[in-house]
Amino acid sequence: MTAPNRKPDYETLLRQAGLRITRPRQVILQILTETDDHPDAAQIFQRAVKQDAQISLATVYRTMKALEENGAIQRHAFGDGPARFEHAGDAHHDHLIDVDTGDVIEFASDRIEALQDEIAERLGYEIVHHRLELYGRKKR
Amino acid sequence: MTAPNRKPDYETLLRQAGLRITRPRQVILQILTETDDHPDAAQIFQRAVKQDAQISLATVYRTMKALEENGAIQRHAFGDGPARFEHAGDAHHDHLIDVDTGDVIEFASDRIEALQDEIAERLGYEIVHHRLELYGRKKR
DNA sequence: GACCTTATTGCAAACGGTTTGCATTTGCAG
DNA sequence: CTGCAAATGCAAACCGTTTGCAATAAGGTC
């Protein structure tokens, strides 16, 4: 059950943050708006180059950083691979990564969240954030 | 509640795997045997150099790889930092990382494990492995 | 629309963690 | 003790990511 993703208006968001909407950014934002998966910087770059051949990978990284700082996207590091991005603002969820395909399935469980809090509590800690990733293989 | 760690006999283990016990390896294995925390390669290297000034970082990495391949240690990547190692063979557990100190506290919860299986099951997946990390701050 | 200031860009170089090629050394089976 | 394969140190390569810099362009102001 993938969480529904309302596509945020990245452009307005950046403008409100006082950032300029440049051509490269338009391209990148459009890609993010259209995408439903969890692409890494290289994938975003590849897609972007098709629209505008002289966009640089550095700009992709810088744009992702700007978006992240403004809470528009989230950065994940699954396994040991490159960072992958997804738009923030959806309800909290964790990830199940298909080890064969790299596909990411989102899921949420209040019970797991509650248990985590309980454990942290017992250890005398306050959870700042957490990471729960299930790596699995599709049953046939 | 840190899981009790029975120190494995790395040396015998490597010998059984047909690997040679060299001076650098002796030093590294001793360090691993003595350590209770989750050191990264650089830390192991630092400690090793004190015993034998000409051990190289490459050898640390190669030794850790050999140990990992033989199931003697586990490699973790907390946050975005360097890989950190711990001896395998202890009962399964997850980690709570103190965001202020980097300290790692181990914990286990059957209930969380069960919930994970349940979720994967529901999604039609079989869990190969998982990663659960709580990042927290000590309450005073 | 032209102008000006400042943010943003592309490029290439630097980065940090990790791996690798190679010539040399070493463990250890025979 | 010898010989050969395995392991070492070193430096260079690697990969994902960040950064310095000079050039370009966004977008507020007139």
Architecture overview:
2 copies of one chain form a homodimer. Chain A has 140 residues and is of the alpha+beta class. Chain A has 5 helices and 5 strands; from the N terminus they run ααααββββαβ. Chain A has a 3-stranded mixed beta sheet. Chain A has a two-stranded antiparallel sheet with strand order 1-2. In chain A, helix 3 (41-51) crosses helix 4. In chain A, 24% of the residues are buried. The structure holds a DNA duplex (30 and 30 nucleotides).
Quick structural summary:
The first copy, chain A, is of the alpha+beta class and 140 residues long.
Count of runs of 4 or more consecutive helical residues of chain A = 5
What kind of oligomer do you see?
homodimer
Largest sheet, strands/sense/barrel of chain A: 3 strands, mixed
Question: What's the rounded overall pLDDT mean of chain A?
Answer: 92
Q: Could you tell me how far the N terminus lies from the C terminus of chain A, measured between alpha carbons in angstroms? A: 18 Å
Query: What's the helical proportion of residues of chain A?
Result: 40-55%
The outline of chain A comes out as: globular
Give, in order, the helices and strands of chain A.
HHHHEEEEHE
Taken as a percent bin, the fraction of beta residues of chain A is: 15-25%
Q: How do the strands of the widest beta sheet of chain A line up side by side? A: 4-3-5
Rg of chain A, rounded, reads 17 Å
Count of discrete structural domains of chain A = 2
